[in-house]
Amino acid sequence: MSTVEIKNPGSYQVSSQLRTLFVVLTFLGFMVFVVALLTDPKRAWSGFVLNHFYFMSLALGGVFFASLQWLTGAMWSAPVRRVTESLTAYLPFVVITSIVMFFGIHNLFHWSHDEVVQSDPILLGKSGYLNVTFFIVRTLVIVGLWLFFAKKLIGNSILQDSKPGDYSITLKNKALSPLFIIVFALSYTVVSFDQIMSLDPHWFSTIFGVYCFAGLFYSTLALTCLITIGLKRTGHLEGVVNENHLHDLGKFMFAFTIFWAYIAFSQFMLIWYANMPEETGYYLKRFDHDWFYVSIFLLVGKFIIPFFALLTRGAKRSESRLVKVAIFMLFAQFVDVLWLVEPEFFKHGPQNLLVDLGIALGFIGVFGLFVSKFLSKHNVLAVGDPRLAESVHHHHQ
Prior knowledge:
By secondary structure, this protein is an all-alpha fold. 74% of the residues lie in helices and 0% in strands. The chain has one domain (16-392). The protein has helices at 16-39, 41-72, 81-87, 91-103, 105-108, 114-118, 121-126, 132-161, 167-195, 208-233, 243-274, 277-286, 291-309, 313-316, 319-341, 353-377, 388-392.
C-alpha cells in the first residue's frame, strides 16, 4: 500500500456569527419554555421532556458510535470518529436538563402522585420502582456513568493526538468499550422506560428500549454525516474523507432505517396479534384523531422515504443527497419522539407545535455551542489514530 502524508487540519474555528446564532437560539428557546410554563405547564413540560430525550440521545449516540469503532477495530471510520466524539460534549448539560425535568415530575408522570398510586392497584404494584426518590437517584447515577465513560474514552482519543501512532491508547479504549456498551445497553433501556414509557405507566413493552436505541443510532448517524460533510466542505476533512467514507455512513443510515422499521413493526405486530386491552390502548391513542396522520408520517417519512432515497450506490456517495436525507432523518426522529411523548397529554392530536419547536431551538442552540466549542478546542481529525493512514486509502470496489 502506498503511503500518504496526512496534514493535521487542526481545530474548527467557529465564526462569531455562528456562535451568536447559537446564543440567540438558546435565548429564544428559554423564553418559549418560560412563557409556556407560566401559561400552560402541561404543554411546557411535554415539550421539554421531548427535547431533553432527543438531544440526550444524540450525545449518547456519539459515545456509542466511537466505542463501537474501538471495539470492532474498524478502519474506515477513523476520519469521522472525532465528529461523533464532538457530540458527547453536550453530555454534561444533560445533568442540568435532568435536574430541570425533576421539577416537572408531577406534571409529567401520573405515578408521582401518591393519591393516584394508592387508588390504582397496578401502580401500587409498581411503586417500589416507580417512585420519585428512586427515579431521581437512578437518573443521576446513570448520567454520572455516561459522563465517566465519555471522559475516559474521549479523553484517551484526544490524548492520542499528542502521541501519534501510540497503539497502547487504542488498546485501552478497546478494553473499556465493551464495558461501556454493556452499561449503555442496560442504562439507556432504563432511561427509556423511565422518561418515555412510564408516561403511560399501565403500558409496557419489553422491546421498547431497543426501539428507542434504534432511533438514537438512526439520528446519530444522520447528524454525524451532516457534520462530516460540513467539515469536508470547509476544507477541514478535504483529502481525508472521501466518497467511500460517505458511502459507509450512507450504508449505516440505510441499514438503521430498516432496523428501526423492523423493531417498530415487531413491537406493533406482537401487540396487535395478542390483542390484549392493556397493550393495545397505547396504539389506539396513536391511531385516533390527528395522531393517525403522525403515525402514517412515521411509516412514510421515517422509513419509506429514507429507504428509497438511500437505496442506490450513487445516492450513498452523493454529498448533496446525503445532506438532504440526513436533515430529513433528524426531523423524522424528532417527530417519532413527539409521537412517543405527546399522545399521553393531548388525546386529539398535536397541540400548539410552536412550543415544541420553540423549545427545540433552545436545545439546538445549546447543543451547537457545546459541539462547536469541542471542535474549536480539539483537532477535528483523530490524527494520532494508528489506523488513520490506512483509512485514507479506504475504497470500495
